[in-house]
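Two proteins follow. First one:
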Amino acid sequence: MHAMQYELTLPARYDMGIIRDRVARRGHLLDDWDGLGLKAYLLRERGLRGSPVNQYAPFYLWNTVDGMNAFLWGGGFQGVSDDFGRPSARQWTGLAYEEGDGSHARFAVRRRQPVPVGEPLADAVEDAVGEAGRLAAQDGALLAAAAVDTSRWELVHFSLWEQDAPPGAEGDLFEVLHLSAPGRDSLPRGRRW
């Protein structure tokens, strides 16, 4: 499993209806993308739910590097680049994925944090794996994942929720506009090593 996200931070007075419209028209295009576990089309609006910015920030969990590369180099990502300029696409290696009992995603929480310095790496990633399990076990959780970027030694925790304010989930809160999940059932559960 590989995680990926790019963020488009938009002007304070930007009409976020443009993004909602874009997702309504184009979101289905990845509903059957080969190699994609899921793509959550995420939005946060300045002044709502504690957001300091207007931002469109899709988050991906890939089953295969081939699928991710086909998206990046084969045309899917080009539409974003054409319309907004080429954003940096952050990538993390998967550590854990767990399913929850939720039925549909309304909100997402993403938390990035440094891998603690001075702590054995095995302990840090075991904690991240445990956090994915803890989040997925909460009422209303659809799923939770943990991943790491070893170039920055940064952990990312990602979770999808049915409710607006998930208890115990810390991080940036996003509205989910659409969920493409052609390979969600194939995402490997549990620890990834």
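Second one, unrelated to the first:
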Amino acid sequence: MATQHHSSALPAPAVSAAYPMARTGYGKRSAPGQQARARDDFALLPTRERYVAGFVDHLPDGAAMSVKQLAKQLPLYGQQAISTALKALSVAGHLRRVRCAVGAGDETRWVFRTFWSRTARDNEWWTTYLTTETATQTAAPAPDTALPSTEQPPAPTAVPPQYIPHQALDAEPAPPAEDTAPARGTGHTAPEAAPSPAYLALARLGRNDHRLGLSAHDCTTLEPLAAQWLDRGVTTDYLTSTLTAGLPAQIDSPAGLLRRRLIDKLPPRLPATPSTPAGTPTPTPTHRLLVECTDCGRPGPPEALPDGLCHPCHTADSTGARPSPDATQIAAVKAHMANLRDLLRPV
């Protein structure tokens, strides 16, 4: 049973009007049925958690919920402290991080949300809510709205202007345009082969997580392995989410790690489905939410992540110690240390 902390917490700073909103399909989402705000909200939480919870509670829906962004707005604590506080708030029943597949066929992509509840909920409530269609619709991004009738679309130009989605303040900058200088000795532009979807999926990993930054040579080397995944019917979003799930805290060789995952986690080849008669309506795919571990980001169904934590993180949180590394991790560390010693050895 939680005990009340009598030490007064510092008031959370007011939410700035310029607080960045997340990209469409990401950010905060409020859970239904919350009680009205009161002075004793979060009174049972420690000082740091009360401070963070009070700030998050006043953020609007769709606000950016990354640890880095919250640490910028809460100067009393760094990113590690904010991450630990969010984990404690998940255990206390105030938040869950989820991912949801939207779209159909090749257009399917994953969107991410952080569900927030001012009123603490137990695991049964979160499991019931996150398995309902209501939660899935709430997590899905809202459709883009059309321009008002009073606004006129821009006049067409030789090169159409690039469209920037609304509230995409934390989006990656657009890559520079390809060089279109004419080829030497000719009077026209030299055509370049467009990169394959497998190559692009590998190249974008470093933008989503700096630990997985690959060189152009690495992307070319791993491209055939990634293409085998796409040949078996998976989407690039499925490939990306599988390669980035449950990453270790430090990655010394991103190319070696991704090569191992591309080989070990290769999905099975499914038999071709029999053709359906023309005119048969295609059933609408049913998408469900996957809960992400608040600590390590490993996805799973709601019932498999009590307190918003996967089994290894939940065990570490209960015992206060991380599970011991397996033999593969120990061998990798020893090999890395031996390599460092060889590099430091005088010639």
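SUMMARY FIELD: Residues 195-272 form one domain. The CA atoms of residues 252 and 336 lie 8 Å apart.
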